[in-house]
Automatic annotation (TrEMBL):
PANTHER family xref list: DELTA(3,5)-DELTA(2,4)-DIENOYL-COA ISOMERASE, MITOCHONDRIAL, ENOYL-COA HYDRATASE
Keywords for this protein: Acetylation, Fatty acid metabolism, Isomerase, Lipid metabolism, Peroxisome, Virulence
Molecular function (Gene Ontology), one example: delta(3,5)-delta(2,4)-dienoyl-CoA isomerase activity
Pathway where it operates: Lipid metabolism; fatty acid beta-oxidation
Biological process per Gene Ontology, one example term: fatty acid metabolic process
Record carries keyword Heme: no
Cited Pfam families: ECH_1
Family annotation (SUPFAM superfamilies): ClpP/crotonase (SSF52096)
Top-level taxon of origin: Eukaryota
Transmembrane regions: none
Compartment(s) where it occurs, according to its Swiss-Prot or TrEMBL record: Peroxisome
Protein's recorded name: Enoyl-CoA hydratase
One Gene Ontology cellular component: peroxisome
């Protein structure tokens, strides 16, 4: 179990296997819809997990059987959140700057998932609307249950998605025509379609089966050299946003330091001696 304290009202953080953390969204009576405090807490959780030496892989899940998340709690946002701020200032410029700051704060909290040094596996089920896409497109691996229903919902509530979907989904190696279709129409798509276009890599028959698969995957990742795994994640994300030449140069720079780790020797010897390697905490 990780040594750090993880206590949050709407999130359950558990450690189901050595070096594996599970972050469970926990507001099932509201379909795990997000209120403002949940955004802030989510960012804090992933920034903490990123540097926790007792964590090497993270699973993002949600409580209840009906929903991963239905997205933004629109009613709460209209009363207390960014939607309510539209009436705080009479001057349009000041109003715009206030709203922009609020959006950027939310973006930073969601980006904390992508910036987490440890690989993050999203395990979705049921209703997975709006913010569900924003969050999981930040994750490294996405799997889901057969009953998952996805939607980039923001157009249907009168706005353009501004927390990451429209920026990250076109870079998620899925067809751009399909991305534009689902974002512009806000239509639902199911697990089979998500698998067909490559938004998820695995579909399981149930939530419990998907959770079991995610835990198996996370446990496997956590058994490997944290230096190797975290460096691999860093370079994959860097290469997504840069040219091939830039990516090659970046891995050369990174490995000029990382190849000096004792993990390389431990991994090689374990292969030769057919034994399970152990790696020091990072």
């Amino acid at each position: 179990m990780a040594s750090a304290d993880y206590t949050y009202e709407h999130f359950n953080i558990t450690f189901p296997s050595q070096y594996v953390a599970q972050v469970e969204i926990n507001r099932p009576k509201k379909l795990n819809a997000f209120i403002e405090q949940m955004w802030t807490d989510l960012g804090a959780i992933f920034r903490q997990l990123s540097v926790d030496p007792d964590v090497r892989a993270v699973i993002l899940t949600a409580a209840g059987d009906r929903a991963f998340t239905s997205g933004l709690d629109v009613q709460a946002a209209s009363q207390n959140g960014v939607l309510a701020q539209q009436t705080e200032h009479a001057d349009p410029a000041r109003k715009a700057l206030s709203i922009r700051r609020h959006i950027l704060e939310f973006q930073r909290d969601i980006t904390a998932i992508e910036e987490c040094e440890k690989p993050v596996i999203a395990m979705m089920h049921g209703i997975s609307y709006g913010l569900a896409i924003d969050m999981t497109v930040c994750c490294d691996i996405r799997i889901c249950a057969e009953d998952t229903r996805f939607s980039v919902r923001e157009v249907d509530i009168g706005l353009a998605a501004d927390i990451g979907t429209l920026t990250r989904l076109p870079k998620a190696n899925v067809p751009l025509s399909w991305v534009k279709e689902v974002c512009l129409t806000a239509r639902d798509f199911d697990a089979a379609e998500a698998l067909r276009v490559g938004f998820v890599s695995t579909v399981c028959e149930s939530k419990s089966a998907a959770l079991k698969k995610a835990l198996e995957m996370a446990t496997l990742l956590a058994s490997k050299s944290p230096v190797a795994v975290q460096s691999t994640k860093q370079i994959l994300n860097y290469s997504r946003d840069h040219s091939v030449a830039d990516g090659l140069n970046q891995i050369a720079l990174l490995n000029s330091a990382m190849l000096q780790t004792k993990d390389v020797e431990a991994a090689m010897l374990s292969g030769l001696k057919k034994r399970k390697p152990t790696f020091a905490k990072l």
